[in-house]
């Protein structure tokens, strides 16, 4: 095949073969362009019998090299990201402190009157609203508010400094 850089059919044929050999890489045109630049550099000092074959093989080699670099870089960045990751789990000393505070709150709850504890837990643990607690226990909403205020104040004082 005679090499004619202005021949569209030549370039289309070479590009199709590069796309096929590089398994449809989206940058096939870029590979062809880089291969052409290398061809011109090479032809400055050497004779090239089959420019199309030279372009195709060079483009394929450039694509393989780029794929290897991408794969290596991706692996490296994943490793780097792993070192930079922060474990969302609390530190051991934080877990120990939280358990101690929980134990302190549990002791405080045990010191409350049963009715105040029940109302406080219905609100805080079960998530019931004051109105729902009042209806369930058949007391006024104002009484519920007083029990929760009493429990909250007691626990705040009981756990102060923990």
Count of runs of 4 or more consecutive helical residues: 7
Work out the helicity level. over 70%
What's the helix-strand series? HHHHHHH
Radius of gyration from CA coordinates: 38 Å
Mean pLDDT: 87
Q: How many strand elements?
A: 0
Binned strand content? under 5%
Shape: rod-shaped
State the domain count: 2
Note poorly predicted spans. none
- What structural class results from the helix and strand content? mainly alpha
Largest sheet: none
Cα distance, first to last residue? Answer: 86 Å
Characterization of this structure:
With 162 residues, this protein is mainly α. The protein has two domains: 8-84; 92-158, Winged helix-like DNA-binding domain superfamily/Winged helix DNA-binding domain (Arc Repressor Mutant, subunit A, Orthogonal Bundle), CATH 1.10.10. It is 75% helix and 0% strand. Helix 1 (8-21) crosses helix 3, helix 2 crosses helix 3 (51-84) and helix 4 (92-111) crosses helix 7 (141-158). It starts with 7 loop residues before the first helix and ends with a helix. The mean pLDDT is 87.
Short synopsis of the structure:
The chain is mainly α.
SSE inventory with pairings:
Layout (H helix, E strand, L loop, with lengths): L7 H14 L6 H16 L7 H34 L7 H20 L2 H11 L5 H8 L3 H18 L4
Helix pairs in contact: 1-2, 1-3, 2-3, 4-7, 5-7, 6-7
Characteristics of this structure?
162 residues; mainly alpha; 2 domains; 7 helices; rod-shaped
């Amino acid at each position: 095949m005679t090499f004619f850089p202005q021949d569209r059919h030549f370039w289309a044929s070479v590009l199709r073969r590069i796309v096929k050999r590089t398994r449809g890489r989206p940058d096939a045109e870029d590979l062809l362009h880089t291969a052409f630049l290398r061809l011109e550099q090479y032809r400055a000092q050497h004779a090239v019998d089959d420019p199309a074959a030279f372009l195709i093989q060079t483009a394929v080699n450039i694509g393989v090299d780029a794929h290897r670099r991408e794969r290596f870089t991706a692996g490296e960045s994943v490793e780097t990201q792993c070192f930079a990751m922060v474990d969302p789990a609390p530190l051991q000393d934080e877990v120990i402190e939280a358990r101690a505070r929980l134990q302190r709150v549990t002791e405080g709850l045990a010191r409350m009157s049963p009715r105040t504890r029940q109302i406080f837990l219905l609100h805080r643990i079960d998530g019931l609203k004051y109105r729902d607690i009042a209806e369930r226990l058949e007391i006024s909403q104002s009484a519920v508010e007083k029990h929760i205020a009493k429990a909250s104040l007691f626990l705040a004082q009981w756990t102060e400094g923990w």
